[in-house]
Amino acid sequence: MPRDSSSDDADRLTRRHYVAGAGTLATVGIAGCSDDSGGDGSDGSDGSDGSDGSDGSDGSDGSDGSDGAELEIVHWWTAGGEQDAYQALLDGFQEEYPDVEVADNPAPGGAGSAIDAVIQNRVVDGNPPSTFQIWPGQALTPYTDEGLLENIGDSVWDDEMRDAYRDGVLDLAQPAGDLVAVPINIHRLNNLFYNVSVVEDAGIDPTDIDGPQGLLSALETLDADTDVTPLVHQTQTPWSSLQLWENIFIGEQGVDDYQTVIGGDVSGLEDEIRSALDLLASYLEYIPEDAGSITWDQGNNDLIAGDAAFLHQGDWAAGQYGGAEDFDFGDDWDMVPFPGTSGVYHSVIDSFVFPTNNPSPEETEQFLNYAGTVDAQERFNPIKGSIPPRTDVPMDEFGDFLTRQFEDFQNSDTQPPTIAHGTAVAPDIHSTLDEVFANFNGSLDVDAAYEGIADAF
Ligand code: GAL
C-alpha cells in the first residue's frame, strides 16, 4: 500500500500514537483570521522591498547570507498545472535569494501517495531533506511526537506573519503547540467539474443536480445517451475514491455527521456510511475502463478533450485547465459544489516544514520565510488553483474561477478537514482507510468496506 513501508522505522512513524488526538482539529474552521482588516500587502510583507522577510532575529543579518548549502525540496507537484505553480514559487524564491542552490527532488504521486516512503526513513534516520511538502494538521503529528520538526515559531513566524494568517490555518501549523509548518495554500475538495458542451449536449444542467443520488441519474443519462465517459476517475491509487466517498457522505448526511465519523463514532452511523459506499459503487460503474492505470491528471485530459463529462476532484484540477489551450472557464468548463455540499468548503492545505538535523538551516529558513510571504502566495496559488492562507494577498490576478471560489470560501458555513488529504485523521487511520478503498476499488464490496472503516477508527 502506498502509505505503508516495509521499514521498521517508517512503520514506527505511521503506526504509533494518537487515536487520542484524532479529530480534535476537526472542529476548527479555517475561514477566520486574527486580523480580519486585511491589507494590501503594502507593508512590504511580500518581500518586494528586496528584504528576505527576516528581521535578523535569528542572529543573521537578514541579508542573503547563504552559506552555500543546497536547499533540497521534496514535494509531489509534478502533475497537471502543479509543476508550473511550484516553478512559479521557486522563481519568486530565487529572485529573492539568487545565491541559494535549489535541489529539486520530486516524489511524484497524487495526494502524496509516494512521498511517505521517501521521507519517513530519511527523517527518522537523521538524513532529511531541507524541507518537504506535507499537509498541516494531523499528518504532522507522527513527526512532532518524535521531535523531528524544528519549532519555527520565532525564526520564521514573526508577528507580521502570524497576524496575516487565517486563525484556523495557523492552528493546523501547530498541532502540538509549537509552530512547525508554513501553510501555503487552501484548496477546495468538494468540486464537481464538468465539460460544458458535453453536459449540455446530454441535456443535463449540473446546477439542477440536487444531491449525490441526482448525480447518479446524470451519469446514467450520459451512459445511455452519449459516447463519453460519464465520470472520469482514477483507481490506480485509493485516494480519489476515498475523497469521493467523503463528499458523497457529506452530500447525503451533512457535515455534522461527517465530523462524528472522523471523531471516531462509526457504528452510530452505519446505515449512512453504507449508503455512501453503495452510491460510490454505483458511480464506479461509469468511470473509464483504464481507471486502474491512469493518474488524476491523465483522466482530466479526457474531460478537456471532450471525451468525459464530470470529474470530482480538488481544485488543483482547475490549475490544469488554466494551462490547457482554448479551454476557458465558463465557456468550456465549469464547476458546481459537489451535489448536496454547497455552503461547505472542504479544505485541503499544503505546507512546508523544517526537519531537525537540517542539512541547510539557513537556506531552509529563507525558503520557509519566503513561502509565508504575500509574494510567494500571490505567485503560487493562481496557477495551483488554490486561494491563499494569508488574508492580505491581492486577489485581482486570481481569475474568475478562483475569485468565485474565494467568495464561496468567505460565504461558507464550514470548512471541514479531509481524510484523504491528511488534515482530519491520524496517519495510521488514514493509511488503513487507503487500504480499505484500494480493496473497494477492485471489489466494490460494501460489507467489507464498512467493516474496514469501522476497524480503522
Ligand atoms: C493533495 C495536495 C494538492 C494536490 C493534490 C493532488 O493532497 O494537497 O496540493 O497536489 O494532492 O496530488
UniProtKB/TrEMBL annotation:
It comes from the Archaea. Pfam families: SBP_bac_1. Signal peptide: none annotated. Residues 29-68 are annotated as: Disordered. InterPro entries: SBP (IPR006059). This is ABC transporter substrate-binding protein. It comes from Halorubrum trueperi.
